[in-house]
Design a protein that fits this description.
about 350 residues, alpha/beta, Nucleotidyltransferase, domain 5, 5-stranded mixed beta sheet, binds 5'-O-[(R)-(carboxyoxy)(hydroxy)phosphoryl]adenosine, binds zinc ion
């Protein structure tokens, strides 16, 4: 069988990224241009600024990804692109570039669900990993427990009813003055703190449910900070970070293990920006391995938004017969499993 080269394009939020991946598993290049510095002063992603920056960066990033991979445009077999979920203006930039390239090169276009991309990042990190497995996808916009039945079949077993896990990390980081994006900063501060210092709540929805809720936890942290301020007491930032992080990780791990037991799978994977969290990785690994589950997660750069994961997912969608027409549009609220 000859090699299949996929050009992946990702622009759903604040990273402009293009990557070249061979046979779904070999990353030949993965260029990521982050806009974090640009959005930092606003404490979060400003959609209009993100779209404008994507317009400036998309072609240079695509050209760099081809150059680093050492392939020319005509050697690309498939163009894969994120078409949802995400910010509509941001998605449209990557989508337009992908459609233009596919049309000009006369190559097939494959639309990729962003979360499916995050899950696929595990295939890049672990060349032998194959479905079925349970994947906890936790990022700035999503917290889902997904049963990955095959490369193309997904069942959502649990999800957040309000804030996403990464969103909670970002909001708490801002409240304790750590800056943006909050996840890595809370992770770092928590290493110096006591995770049992403050008993923040863990929301559970009963036996059968694997859903999450983080807005009550967020309010509890904000109330704690407010009370301390009113009493004129000094807040230990590291203890708040550690106690908050522990509360998030406890429910993420518990629900993920519940799903794995229910589906009787042998493997559990992590995906999305929050999968870079050191406590989440360690806690899941130690608890899951005691129960004989194999645990998989990508390196941090493959956890956060990148186009290699999109190219990988596009490869498996292409193998399954998926082809998009030039009418493919951005779908900001695209649900996993929807086409
Ligand atoms: O997957 P991603 O790059 O973008 C979305 O699709 O949302 O995830 C970004 C999110 C941010 O909320 C960021 O704070 C969080 O992932 N994050 C982390 C860590 N690194 C990134 N959260 C906790 N601990 C980390 N080490
Ligand atoms: Zn993402």
């Amino acid at each position: 069988m000859s090699d299949l080269i996929v050009l992946g394009i990702e622009s759903s939020c604040d990273e402009t990224s293009a990557a070249v991946v061979k046979n779904g598993r070999v990353v030949m290049s993965n260029v990521i241009s982050s806009q974090v510095d640009l959005h930092q002063k606003f404490g979060g992603v400003v959609p209009e600024i993100a779209s404008r920056k994507h317009v400036e960066l998309i072609m240079p990033v695509i050209n760099q990804s081809l150059e680093e991979a050492g392939v020319n445009m005509h050697e690309i077999d498939v163009v894969g692109v994120t078409y949802g979920p995400g910010l509509v203006g941001a998605l449209l930039v990557g989508l337009s570039a992908a459609k233009g390239l596919a049309f000009a090169l006369n190559k097939p276009l494959v639309g990729v669900h962003h979360i499916e991309g995050h899950i696929a990042a595990n295939y890049l990190e672990h060349p032998d990993l194959e479905p079925p497995f349970i994947c906890l996808v936790a990022s700035g916009g999503h917290s889902h427990i997904v049963y990955v039945e095959s490369y193309n079949r997904f069942e959502i077993m649990g999800q957040t009813r309000d804030d996403a896990a990464g969103e909670a990390f970002d909001k708490i980081a801002r409240a304790i003055g750590l800056g943006y994006p909050g996840g890595p900063l809370v992770d770092k501060a928590a290493c110096q703190g006591n995770c049992e210092a403050i008993p923040f709540p863990r929301v559970r929805f009963g036996e059968g449910s694997m859903d999450f809720s983080f807005s009550g936890l967020k309010t509890a942290v904000l109330n704690y900070l407010h009370n301390m301020e009113q009493k004129g007491e000094k807040v230990n930032i590291e203890d708040v970070a550690a106690s908050f992080q522990q509360a998030v990780v406890d429910v993420l791990v518990e629900n993920t293990l519940k799903a794995a037991k229910l589906k009787d799978v042998k493997k559990i994977a992590l995906a999305g920006g929050v999968a870079a969290n050191s406590l989440l990785r360690n806690q899941l690994k130690s608890r899951a391995e005691k129960l004989n589950f194999g645990v998989f997660y990508p390196r941090p750069i493959l956890c956060t938004d990148n186009a290699a994961m999109i190219a990988c997912a596009a490869f498996y969608e292409y193998q399954n017969g998926s082809r998009a027409g030039l009418e493919l549009n951005a779908v900001p609220g695209l649900k996993l499993g929807e086409k």
